[in-house]
Structures are given as structure tokens and as C-alpha cells.
Specification:
Helix content is about 75%, strand content about 0%. The chain has helices spanning about 1-5, 10, 15-35, 35-40, 45-75, 80-95, 105-135, 140-165, 170-185, 215-220, 225-240, 245-250, 255-275, 275-280, 285-305, 310-315, 320-335, 345-370, 375-395, 400-405.
Length: about 425
């Protein structure tokens, strides 16, 4: 009796602790990426230089994510949690050095590394949450992710006030503080399970070690087309968000209307995130990912044909079956679709696809705006969303031919 009861204290409040991890991660994302232009412009960078730095960092993180995740899936001397902590220690130190090393070259290297590390940590945080569920420990992933979005919004407002009160040089201090919280949240995310009561923390198990050592995309040959679909969906999604101000202007909107539109979009995500556990009882993660493609496409199509701001506000409802649903459904589907020893790699490949979508949206969107205008930009976003939707609908369908093509996970419904 005493032996079986011992794990209980270590598994209490797991959702609360994981919520702290998600909240601090998205707060860190806010100050490092969302406020990057605010800080770097103050440091003397030009807009072009900032765009190049963000794009290059995105490309490098996309290239590194599969490499880092493969290392994480094959850990022997440390746990996944400890591996994430190593990256976060470096991220925390670099954020502190921004206040010390103020030369332009040092600022470029430090800030670029911060953006890369931030994106490398995301799949590791997702994998930690799914590892918890895989061990039978109850965790409401949707609630944690939803509160993470709320934290992002609150921290955005806080950083805006902080810049007004203390100036742009206060942002590295905010980075340092929130990265310390993120590091501590990961460091304390430890638990025991009845079958592993003798272990001090989450660690890779023998059965999690992949027997097949082939590269991820060779092992799951159909996955490359799924990833291409995700890239297309996030080209569509990021065009709408990156160029939101330019999109509202032809409809008579200003920065105020843009802010209102993005706020509606953010709040539309919350019901899906908080109710995701209920959705999983009604449909498989595979089916929900297929729905996501439709949501992304309709969001872009609605923005393209919207005659005025009122309709554009209403179009934001498609954020619910689109990005909000994808954020959770894709994580669950990857966890179900690949072998236990490949789960971190799976999360990282999907994070890489999202990053590539962002980079391509920035490059192509800027060119289209300069040379063709907003209408063609939105047509491009709609076309990209349509391609992504078709790929997901076909490749994740239940037809016989699809099952044969997607053989590594054809048993997953």
C-alpha cells in the first residue's frame, strides 16, 4: 500500500506546473520575438537589418530543429527535461548579456541566438507535456496552452507599459526575468509513476529507444507531404498576421481596427483550447488535424473576399477550427502517429514546418505587397491555405490508398 501511494505527491498539480511552463514560454516568445523590432530599432538597427536577422534566425532554427530533436530522442546520460534545461540556461545567459555586450556585432549574435534557442525549446516543451500523458499522469494540455495564450497577451501589454516607463533597454531585463521563470518551471517539472517509482525524474526508458535508426523522413516516407501541407498552411496564417495592418487599410481600417481584429482572433482561440479534451472524446487527433486545414483555408478566403471591417472581424471565427485547433491536435497526432523513440523529432519537424511557413510568408508577402498589392497578397494566402488543406485532407484520409501510402501510421485513426 505504501509503495503504490508514494508517487501521488509527485504527480499533484501537474496541469498547474505545466501551465506555468507554457505561460512563461509564450511570455518569453512575446518579449524576444514580438518586441524584437522595438528593441533592435532602439539599438540602431534598420528595418531591413531586423528583417534579415529574423529570417536568418528562422531558417537556422528550422535547420537545427531536426538535429537537436534527434539528439533529444537518443539521450543516454540525461533526461529530456535536463536537455531542455541546458538550452534554457544558455538562453537565460544570453538574455543577460544583452545588457553587457552592447556592440552592434555582439547584439546581432546574441539576439539571433536568442531567437534560435527560443524556437528550439518549443518542441521540447511540447514533448515534456506529452511524455507526462504517455506515462498515465493526468494533464490538461489544452488548458495549459490556452492560459499560455492569455499570458502572451498580458505580457504584451506589460512589455508595452515597461517600454513607456523605463525605455527599450528594460526589455533585456524582462527577457532575463521571464527566462529564469521558464528555466525554473522546466527544472521543477518532475514526477514519479508507479512503474518508475525508483527513478528520480522523467527519463528515457529502454522501450522508448528507437530500434530503427534510419533518419526520420526515411522512416516515415509519407510525412514529408504532410509537412509540406503544414508549411502551406502557415504561409497562409502568417501572411494574415504579419501584414495585418496592410490588410485592414483598404477596408478603411487603422491600427485601432487592426488591434481589435487581432484581439478577436486571440479570444477566439480560447474556447477550443480550454475545451480540447472534450473534442478528443468526439473525434481522433487525426480527424481534428484534417479539420484544421479547412479552418486555415476559410480564414484566408474570408479575409480575401471581405467587403469591410465588420465582415473581416467575423472572419476571425475561423481561427477556432484553424490555428487554435491545430496548435493542440497536431501535437496529439504526432504523439500517436510515430514510434515512442521518435516523438521529439516529430514535434520538431512540425515546428520546423511552421517556422519555414513564417519565413516564406515574410519574404513572399513583402514582395507581393510591394509589386502587386493587398488583393494579390490575400489571393496568395488563400491559394497556400487551399494547397495545405487538400494535402491534409487527402493524406490523412481513411481511404485504402491513403493507408498504404502512410503505412508507418496507418493504424492510427
Amino acid at each position: 500500500m505504501n509503495h503504490t501511494a508514494s508517487p501521488v505527491p509527485r504527480t499533484r498539480h501537474v496541469t498547474g506546473r505545466y501551465t506555468l511552463m507554457q505561460s512563461s514560454y509564450w511570455a518569453s516568445y512575446c518579449v524576444i520575438l514580438t518586441f524584437s523590432s522595438v528593441y533592435l530599432l532602439h539599438q540602431g538597427f534598420r528595418n531591413t537589418e531586423i528583417g534579415i536577422l529574423i529570417s536568418v534566425s528562422g531558417i537556422l532554427s528550422a535547420v537545427l530543429q531536426p538535429v537537436v530533436s534527434r539528439a533529444a530522442d537518443n539521450l543516454r546520460r540525461m533526461s529530456l527535461r535536463q536537455f531542455a534545461m541546458v538550452l534554457l540556461v544558455v538562453q537565460t545567459v544570453f538574455s543577460g548579456l544583452l545588457r553587457v555586450l552592447t556592440a552592434p556585432a555582439a547584439q546581432t549574435v546574441l539576439y539571433g541566438c536568442l531567437m534560435i534557442l527560443l524556437q528550439l525549446v518549443l518542441p521540447l516543451c511540447s514533448a515534456l507535456g506529452m511524455d507526462c500523458l504517455n506515462r498515465g499522469i493526468p494533464l490538461n494540455f489544452g488548458v495549459a496552452r490556452g492560459i499560455g495564450s492569455v499570458a502572451y497577451g498580458l505580457f504584451s501589454a506589460l512589455c508595452g507599459r515597461l517600454v513607456l516607463w523605463l525605455g527599450e533597454n528594460s526589455l533585456p531585463l524582462a527577457m532575463l526575468a521571464i527566462n529564469l521563470v521558464l528555466l525554473l518551471s522546466v527544472a521543477t517539472f518532475r514526477f514519479r509513476t508507479p512503474e518508475a517509482a525508483g527513478e528520480g525524474e522523467t527519463s528515457p526508458k529502454a522501450e522508448d529507444t528507437p530500434a530503427d535508426t534510419r533518419p526520420f523522413l526515411r522512416k516515415y516516407r509519407g510525412m514529408v507531404w504532410i509537412l509540406l501541407g503544414v508549411v502551406c498552411l502557415f504561409i497562409s496564417h502568417n501572411v494574415l498576421n504579419t501584414y495585418a495592418f496592410q490588410i485592414v487599410q483598404p477596408l478603411g481600417g487603422t491600427s485601432e481596427e487592426m488591434g481589435t481584429m487581432l484581439s478577436i482572433q486571440a479570444f477566439a482561440e480560447l474556447p477550443v483550447m480550454f475545451g480540447f479534451v472534450l473534442l478528443l472524446k468526439k473525434a481522433s487527433s487525426r480527424s481534428l488535424v484534417r479539420v484544421c486545414g479547412v479552418g486555415f483555408f476559410l480564414h484566408a478566403l474570408g479575409a480575401w473576399v471581405a467587403p469591410g471591417m465588420g465582415v473581416l472581424y467575423g472572419v476571425q471565427i475561423f481561427e477556432m477550427p484553424g490555428y487554435a485547433l491545430y496548435t493542440l491536435a497536431s501535437i496529439y497526432w504526432i504523439n500517436d502517429a510515430v514510434a515512442p523513440g521518435d516523438r521529439v523529432q516529430g514535434q520538431a519537424w512540425f515546428a520546423m514546418a511552421m517556422t519555414l511557413g513564417n519565413v516564406l510568408a515574410s519574404f513572399a508577402g513583402g514582395l507581393l505587397l510591394d509589386y502587386a498589392g493587398v488583393s494579390l497578397l490575400l489571393a496568395f494566402a488563400t491559394a497556400a491555405g487551399g494547397v495545405g488543406m487538400v494535402l491534409l485532407l487527402v493524406l490523412l484520409g481513411k481511404g485504402r490508398s491513403c493507408r498504404k501510402r502512410m503505412n508507418p501510421w496507418s493504424s492510427v485513426d
